[in-house]
Write a structure and sequence with these properties.
The complex is a heterodimer of chains A (211) and B (542).
Chain A lengths: L10 H21 L4 H28 L3 H17 L10 H19 L9 H8 L6 H15 L4 H11 L5 H8 L3 H24 L6
Chain B lengths: L2 H12 L5 H13 L1 H30 L6 E2 L14 H16 L2 H13 L6 E14 L9 E3 L1 E14 L4 E14 L2 E12 L8 E3 L3 E5 L3 E6 L5 E7 L1 E6 L9 E5 L3 E4 L7 E3 L32 E6 L19 E4 L9 E8 L3 E9 L22 E7 L29 E9 L4 E8 L5 E4 L5 E6 L5 E9 L15 E11 L6 E7 L21 E5 L1
Helix pairs in contact in B: 1-2, 1-3, 2-3, 3-4
The chains are: A mainly alpha (211), B alpha+beta (542).
Chain lengths: 211, 542
């Protein structure tokens, strides 16, 4: 492709996630391979994963708060889901199945590769998350409500939230960058999160629809 | 279970600061308490949701028509100074979100589009910090964004721009500034303080009337809408070159530290010497510094856990003269370190059947400058310099008061949480109208409130040396939820005081002192008196 640039690290995965299903579909059509049925099922699972991956990422972040690690975990989940595609039966709750896979992948990742060494006990993660039903539309409604609420934050609070969740900066880094103390950043972030939570709940209660 | 401790542990979990010890502590807390598990679950989910919401916003922002003057930290990789590794993560966020929002062919199209984009214009600056910024025009940079040549309209707030040469530009709104190149800018209106390192000597600021050329210095330029320009040198020297010669035929003037000139807006351009004033410009990017332990100033742990509220000896006139007061119940607190001499409070309270009286003598290097309008944004008034009291007027609440800020993550709110007899008072002097102001908020939810209600009286009086002020006020018990049942001798009710200091602008918070606290909370890092009434100390009515 003329003018095509080298992909930055990480970009390949996200593009492969998106393009892979289509490339594979194309390949199947051309070859008429006898393993069409199982390939179609695996392809379907991958397509479903792509459709739900935002929620999966959010779910993983709720267990592993480090964004870079969470991204790596979602990559692992994609590979695991592809490997185990045959164990999912069409018609059953796909997201529940993926989240179970994601939870085990997260635990495995935390034990073997995580950047952080101290973490919650494994039994605690099971206790916290094992029985939790993940509802795609509920997550989406909440994300949409939060986006609206972000627009209403005071500029300073928005700057902090943006640094923390877009720049993935930790309070200490934010404090250095803007000349506050770490504690000031923490307090301000706590307040901003509190304001966002209240705003989100208010909107959901009022039946706020996604924009 | 201590909710405050749980909050601290969740913060540590979220920010990757759990140690083996605190991880075990958090696990145990969660193991032992359904409530803790529910709170943690809500916070963890919120963490994921916030990432997703911000990602979606970032994608939408990136999809808007590209600005030619500013672009996100993802661009200009070769020039970008390392910013804590945030850039690559931001890029991943965008890509992750893109992965969700577009599929297959769409991605390919986006990919082609991105691949064929022309190189962005060369950036030479970064918006390093921004406080309360509202931008005019199409450019709305965020801190960390790279800036190329172009105009910036700053309607509100303060912005700091760092050029790659090391030059710092501190812009104070309202301002219209154009970054021309690495060596030049144009200030059409507004205030600008320029700090030039020796390696970048020669930096120039053009204004409608003059061109200010640095000779290795720190200087301020103030351009009014009519073109009147003030140049003030804080360190080093500059040359002010007039666009037209002044009546004496002079075209330029060299200014050294301490020098100030005004270039008149009238047809005949004049170069006049005027008095140097430190307060003419904001020279530092002022942000609040919050205390942690007793390490930072002007914060320090609370020293006082109770205040004697004395019976008023007679008629009290709220005029800023405390000669009619019984000051025997006063408390005194000073900030730590170098601020101990200048930032302090002596606070007193009295009462009778009709009124609660509050008096304070405050050491404040920037006294009575608050410019936050009670009719506009009283909620933010505390930041411009103020005194805040939080108190309970209901003896049935006892002490410590258990009320706390209701939270959606906690089921229900208690009657105390939303009681009209839990009152938060903010007292400030609105300088533009020379008006003493009072805001009252009720309950820990702070949802209901009044500003400057009828019936209260207050006065602020500046100290003779200009280094502080005295506040005196009388507030009817009816406004404090206790009109029919005011406190009686022997009552011990919740109370906490906070003094807030601002910078010279009268709107930016510089620090605070929180006093009259429940001893277990006196030295805790978080001063959450606005959230947990249990942190309040005691008012003992004598």
């Amino acid at each position: 492709m003329p003018g095509r640039r080298t992909l930055p690290p990480g970009k390949e995965f996200w593009l492969s996630l998106l393009i892979l299903p289509f490339e594979r579909q194309s390949s199947c059509e051309m070859t008429g391979d006898s393993s069409d049925t199982s390939n179609d099922h695996a392809l379907h699972v991958q397509q479903l994963f792509v459709r739900h991956q935002q929620t999966v990422l959010g779910y993983v972040l709720s267990i592993e708060p480090d964004f870079a690690d969470a991204q790596d975990i979602v990559q692992e989940v994609f590979l695991a889901v592809s490997r185990k595609a045959q164990t999912w039966s069409a018609g059953t709750d796909f997201l529940a199945w993926v989240c179970t896979v994601a939870r085990y992948e997260t635990l495995h990742f935390q034990r073997t590769r995580a950047r952080r060494t101290a973490r919650l006990d494994r039994d605690m993660i099971e206790l916290l998350y094992a029985g939790e039903a993940v509802d795609e539309s509920e997550w989406q409604h909440r994300v949409d409500a939060l986006r609206r609420c972000l627009g209403r934050l005071a500029p300073r609070a928005k700057e902090l939230i943006w640094r923390r969740y877009h720049g993935a900066e930790m309070p200490g880094q934010i404090a250095t960058a803007i000349g506050w103390t770490v504690n000031a950043v923490r307090v301000a972030l706590t307040r901003a999160r509190g304001a966002l939570r209240e705003c989100m709940e208010r909107r959901l209660k009022a039946g706020g629809q996604p924009r | 279970m201590s909710l405050q401790r749980l909050d601290e542990l969740i913060d540590a979990w979220r920010d990757g600061e759990l140690t083996e010890g605190t991880a075990a502590e958090l696990s145990q807390l969660l193991r032992d308490s359904d409530e803790a598990r529910r709170v943690f679950g809500e916070e963890a989910k919120m963490h994921g949701l916030l990432h997703l919401a911000v990602m979606a916003e970032a994608v939408e922002k990136a999809a808007r028509p590209a600005s030619w003057r500013t672009y996100s930290a993802a661009a200009g990789e070769a020039e970008k100074p390392q910013r804590l590794g945030a850039r690559s993560i931001s890029r991943k966020l965008l890509l992750a979100a893109a992965g969700v929002l577009v599929l297959g062919v769409v991605v390919a199209a986006v990919w082609l589009h991105v691949a064929e984009q022309p190189e962005p214009p060369r950036s030479f600056a970064t918006l390093s910090r921004a406080t309360d910024c509202v931008w005019d025009g199409p450019i709305h940079p965020q801190p960390g964004d790279r800036l190329a040549a172009g105009a910036l309209g700053l309607r509100k707030g303060t912005a700091e721009i760092r050029l790659t040469s090391g030059v710092d530009l501190l812009v104070e709104a309202p301002a219209n500034l154009e970054l021309t190149d690495i060596d030049n800018s144009v200030l059409r209106t507004g205030r600008l303080v320029v700090r030039v390192p020796s390696t970048a000597t020669g930096y120039a600021v053009d204004t409608p009337k003059a061109r200010i050329v640095d000779l290795g210095t720190e200087f301020g330029v103030d351009v009014q809408a009519d073109g009147e320009t003030v140049v003030q040198v804080f360190a080093g020297a500059v040359v002010a070159e007039l666009k037209k010669p002044d009546p004496s035929g002079k075209r330029s003037r060299r200014l050294v530290a301490g020098g100030t000139v005004r270039i008149d807006a009238s047809g005949a351009v004049e170069l006049q010497k005027i008095a140097f004033s430190h307060e003419r410009f904001l020279r530092t990017f002022s942000t609040p510094s919050v205390y942690e332990g007793d390490e930072l100033i002007p914060f320090k742990p609370s020293q006082t856990s109770s205040l004697d509220v004395m019976a008023a000896p007679g008629r009290v006139t709220a005029d800023g003269d405390l000669s009619d007061w019984d000051l025997s119940g006063s408390f005194e607190a000073r900030c730590a370190g170098e601020f101990a001499g200048s930032c302090y409070i002596r606070g007193s309270m009295m009462y009778d059947r009709q009124y609660l009286y509050i008096a304070a003598s405050v050491g404040d290097p920037m006294p009575m400058r608050n410019v936050i309008d009670p009719d506009g944004d009283p909620w933010s008034a505390w930041m411009g310099g103020s005194i805040q009291l939080r108190l309970s007027t209901d003896r049935t609440f006892g002490w410590p008061v258990k009320a706390r800020k209701p939270s959606p993550r906690r089921r229900g709110a208690s009657a105390q949480d939303t009681s009209g007899r839990i009152v938060h008072l903010t007292l400030w002097y609105f300088q533009p109208r020379e008006q003493p102001c009072l805001e009252l908020r009720y309950g820990m939810d702070l949802d209901r409130g009044v500003v400057n209600p009828p019936g209260w009286r207050g006065a602020f009086r500046k100290a003779p040396d200009g280094e502080g002020y005295t506040l005196e006020c009388a507030i009817p018990w009816t406004l404090l939820g206790a009109g029919s049942d005011p406190p009686r001798p022997g009552d011990e009710l919740g109370l906490s005081w906070t003094v807030n200091w601002s910078d010279a602008s009268g709107k930016r918070w510089k620090g605070q002192l929180v006093e009259i606290k429940n001893p277990p909370y006196a030295a805790r890092g978080k001063q959450l008196t606005h959230m947990y009434a249990e942190t309040w100390g005691k008012a003992i009515y004598r």
